[in-house]
Design a protein that fits this description.
Blueprint (H helix, E strand, L loop, with lengths): L1 H24 L21 E9 L5 E9 L25 E4 L2 E4 L2 H5 L1 H4 L20 H7 L11 E2 L12 E6 L4 E8 L7 E5 L4 E3 L4 E2 L5 H6 L2 E2 L7 E4 L3 E4 L18 E5 L4 E3 L17 E4 L3 E5 L11 E4 L4
Length: 322
């Protein structure tokens, strides 16, 4: 009888332990990380973050961070974008994203455009090797027009910070993110979800620069223009100001003690944005359709796409501010 009792107790313990482990494997996403406003590089003038009441897309009444920024980074310089001559090295130009790869826009890249795109219409330099580049705010505005026409064909489009000195933008992100069962596509194209009521912006970097929608590279190229990004993945247009189309590791990031990919900002739904790969260069293998997943340290969060993909995340899995 004594041994029978012991056996029953052991079996009960093993069953309860197994049941507990099984439950922990299927546990719900209980960790929710609030937005940490202290990570933003605010200066009190050109980049401010304040708390305001807001209503989210699912009807949640809560608090949001109101971010007002001129989009000018304080943690790195902007540019250069277009090299001056076909003899210039990579330090004189920016980058271009094509076919999932990042290319240096140096003089040799400009010189080789006809071969690169298998189209002899490309000839972006004169007989002395000087590269045709926009050099005024008017040129910037005209060359950015979808119907640019022949006047700027074979121009390297370079819009300068001096053109946007009076530009500011305001964004709202929830202080406490709310994960939803359904995800939503970004406005003006983007993710695989239904609907298009979310903003087109993907998120905000710690320096106040927007992670924007994919650049319309096909439209740019079809006009036989090139609008390079700088080494930080950003460039300027007169309406959006300076904005990113790729995460290249230049802007401020927060390393993770466990070797997880570094954090680079917040998505528009308040969930964290992290680099594509971890400290060992490995990409996560369990991302959902929006490029997000969950862990008990960071809660639900996103990993941005590789820089060459001209993309950050595909959709939002959380409620966003109306």
């Amino acid at each position: 009888m004594k041994y029978l009792i012991i056996t029953i107790v052991l079996l009960s313990y093993l069953f309860s332990t197994t049941s507990c482990n099984k439950g922990s494997e299927n546990e719900t996403e209980t960790v929710v990380k609030d937005v940490d406003a202290s990570l933003f590089l605010t200066d009190g003038t050109n980049f401010t973050v304040t708390t305001v009441p807001c209503t989210l897309s699912d009807g949640t009444v809560t608090d949001c961070y109101e971010i007002v920024t001129n989009g000018v980074p304080t943690d790195h310089t902007m540019g250069p974008w277009c090299p001056d001559n076909i003899t210039d090295d990579a330090s004189k130009g920016g980058i271009w994203l094509e076919g999932g790869k990042v290319y240096d826009v140096d003089g040799a890249f400009i010189q080789n455009m006809a071969t690169f795109y298998n189209d002899n219409t490309w000839l972006m330099y004169d007989s002395t090797g000087n590269i045709y580049t926009t050099d005024s705010q008017t040129d910037c505005a005209n060359a950015a027009n979808p119907n640019v026409g022949a006047a700027y064909q074979n121009y390297c489009v370079e819009c300068l910070p001096s053109y946007i000195t009076n530009l500011t933008h305001t964004y709202l992100i929830p202080v406490k993110p709310v994960k939803l069962d359904q995800y939503a596509s970004f406005a003006m194209g983007g993710g695989p979800g239904g609907g298009s009521t979310v903003p087109s912006n993907r998120g905000i970097a710690f320096n106040g620069v927007v992670f924007d929608a994919p650049a319309p590279t096909n439209a740019i190229l079809s006009a036989y223009t090139l609008a390079p990004f700088d080494d930080a993945g950003g460039h300027i247009n007169l309406n959006a100001g300076y904005h990113y189309h790729a995460a290249t590791g230049v802007s401020t990031k927060v390393s993770q003690a466990d070797g997880h990919a570094a954090m680079i900002g917040y998505a528009m739904d308040g969930h964290g944005l992290y680099e594509a790969v971890d400290a060992d260069g490995n990409a996560p293998t369990d991302l959902d359709a929006c490029r997000g997943h969950y862990d008990e340290t960071r809660g639900y969060h996103y990993h941005v796409d590789e820089a060459g993909k001209n993309n950050f995340i595909n959709c939002l899995h959380g409620a966003y501010a109306n």
